[in-house]
């Protein structure tokens, strides 16, 4: 059956509390690691956004890969596409299973406890060892760190299939923090709130025209824009 | 094996239902020809679309899944090619017009005569187009009005003559457009509203885009974005003479003993195989899949692939690599840019389009400012990846960043090509396209100069930090695939003639961007559609009268 005919299954990433794929220990460990990748400060972090639930549902199989367009349920994948995703998820499951074991091993080396038993500083140190690099320094406009880390901005996303565990965890944490809540993370859209993205209240609202960004545009301006009063109202360098 | 019936012969079978294929389907079926369309991908509808970043950008819902439809890339013949998702382009009904940003500028008059203007550029295979702007102009106008576009005639002082303006007014200004217009003016440069494949007023039963912000790389759940999915395909279907079969994978173009194409072999979604006979075959699979299909269609008469007696099928590939400078702004002194508001880009400039040899290179392209990305994929080189520093950078700059990009007007080079990978197969067991490509030195010079210039514009706009993102190699990041079935008058150096008809197979045509003799510095879809219309008219006026009855 072609992609256009895939049925919608009335399931949600929030149907059950807690893990679908992970063990309790894996769940808690990945939750703690994600909380070091996007920490909680005066704004919520990965823990509050339930990033671990996003990752767990991604690894649960192929049932939570593609939401229905309006966010009510998920598409039942079929055929070659489903097979490709099954293979992809199988590989990611191994990365995560082995990744948790590795986090605990590094923690034991360091302080003779599991990763969960470490202080935040020691957890960061374990993540540094795992990543093979020091924890990123604060970014500032003044000094140049061009080329240090960070996926280059581009108009095509990073291909997750070629990532090792740590960069995969970092990317999935970001996806769970900033992706649409339908995937199980970004609880109450807290990720969007942190960065000031006035995103849609639901996927359905992007379809029926009820969600719009017009108020952030300058609709009254006319060409030539640089001399138009609506443009001249803004600060100029 | 198949329990299904073999299909009835028709006048024309069109492989692919993107910009080129859908235009041909509309023109030919409206004139009374019986047409079958075979599209490899699904027939998704607007109701399958919504503002879901992960689905459309990260999880390849409409781009080809590299596990199912891989491609390989190598810089040159000495290196083993590696699997990549080179030139991710929607393989769906509507093709690249479903996910695109809808940039529809016209070619400049100079684009048609680069060989005459620049002579023999060493290392490149620069040629003139065998057609002129004047021949294409009526079709540009026709597509702009039938397809639905917006813009402001006369605002681009570099544009050639036009017989008519745009059917709908320019799209609304974004904060990024505002910033670009102000900075360019300060530097003495001009800007104008991006000509867009969108309607901004009610037009032919369509409503303007909702401005939900999910534009570039997202199909539109409404009817504001112009795509062949919601325009030319419904027009063709409405004639009752266009049978579009989605999820139908063509593996070979068949030829008879007389060297004419007889039809195509394809598999449906269940894997059942069919032969669709037709009096003519039009290939519109895009600049990578079209040469692949021609090269897979080997026979006694055409041992090197169909229509490839010149050996030129797949060669002279150009890809319009997209590069840019990122600007980061200080929230204390600059107003927010809200890059996610609107429709990706809203203005552009042609001030760097025409050659100025004092820049140290020839050619140029349009430049345009845009958002950097929605929250998941927003990034810049040097962005801290994790920890407090990462969160701080996201919070500080998400609404205070933008980029100004350039589409590389790359030179055709004969060795830059698409052929069949000898080792890698797709999920159907067929050899995948292998891309062999190294940019010409002029490409690097042009790209470096323009990215630096774009950085200067960002500084004039008030950016406190400018980060160049330069090309290292070609990745196909614009989904523009050009030049691999070159149009020309000489059968020894080109694949199709001035009507995009094979020099060797008189009832075989190529109507996608494979025909582009040179890359141009603009987005190709409008030109693909205008040219497909022009060549379809030729079929109706001349060629069809010579087709034998099956």
How would you describe the overall organization of this protein?
- The complex is a heterodimer of chains A (237) and B (550).
- With 237 residues, chain A is mostly helical.
- Chain A has one domain.
- In chain A, 39% of the residues lie in helices and 2% in strands.
- Chain A is built from 7 helices and 2 strands; from the N terminus they run βααβααααα.
- In chain A, helix 2 crosses helix 5 and helix 3 packs across helix 4 (120-131).
- Chain A is globular and about 65 Å long.
- By secondary structure, chain B is of the alpha/beta class.
- Chain B has 2 domains: 1-99 and 126-148 and 227-317 and 482-550, FAD/NAD(P)-binding domain; 149-219 and 322-407 and 438-473, Cholesterol Oxidase, domain 2.
- Chain B contains 11 helices and 17 strands.
- In chain B, strands 1, 2, 6, 7, 8, 9 and 17 form a 7-stranded mixed beta sheet that branches. A 4-stranded mixed beta sheet of chain B has the order 4-3-15-14.
- In chain B, strand 3 and strand 4 (82-84) form a beta hairpin.
- In chain B, helix 1 runs parallel beside helix 11 (525-541).
- Chain B is globular, with a radius of gyration of 23 Å.
- The model of chain B has no long low-confidence stretch (mean pLDDT 96).
- The chains are: A mainly alpha (237), B alpha/beta (550).
- At the A-B interface, helix 3, helix 5 and helix 6 of A face helix 2, helix 6, strand 5, strand 10 and helix 9 of B.
